[in-house]
Amino acid sequence: EVSTEDPETAFCTLANREDLNPEEGSIYHCLYQFTRNEKLTETNKLLCDVCTQRHYGPKNNIKSEKYVYTNAKKQMLISLAPPVLTLHLKRFQQAGFNLRKVNRHIKFPEVIDLAPFCTVKCKNVAEGNTKVLYSLYGVVEHSGTMRSGHYTAYAKMRSMNSHLSDLVLRGPSPQVLETEPVKGQWFHISDTHVQAVSASKVLSSQAYLLFYERLL
């Protein structure tokens, strides 16, 4: 599929990602790094069927060892914006032969725009839209070490998001006006203990999993 994409738009996004200038230690920086353009060279060259056929002719005339490898570019972008976005943060790193937990706080917003990380031909985004907005409604947090610990969650009690239901049942609508977080009350849940908390408390948590619902 990649070889048949229009080379002029293959690496284009709905919104200019170079305008982001994401802050290091933020979820935007994580997404920017995850979707960065990579060059495949030397031992990472791409096996190119088109180049091989051009050089050796049809496949049935090619000996098994005769293939053409070429330099290439690779980029992972979102081609279908989901109704519910789940972001899983890698909270461990290799330290010699051991795994070490990463306790660094990653900043995340109540409303996130995925447009800079979506392909310009994103399947379920209306033509002309340059924003793909999501509102935060759930966070999972882990305390402890790699060997033991405790999971807690933050969840927002809110009114039903009719647009989200429409997305699931009927696909994207032509135009949606919501650009603010879905209103509601946040709660912290730890086993059987539930406590109302502020949005600032949620945004200061050591997020392990983030759950967003699509606004537009």
TrEMBL record:
Signal peptide: none
InterPro entries in UniProt: Papain-like_cys_pep_sf, Peptidase_C19, Peptidase_C19_UCH, USP, USP_CS
Protein name: UBP16 hydrolase
Hydrolase listed as a keyword: yes
GO biological process: protein deubiquitination
Keywords for this protein: Hydrolase
Example GO molecular function: cysteine-type deubiquitinase activity
GO CC terms of this entry: cytosol; nucleus
Domain of life: Eukaryota
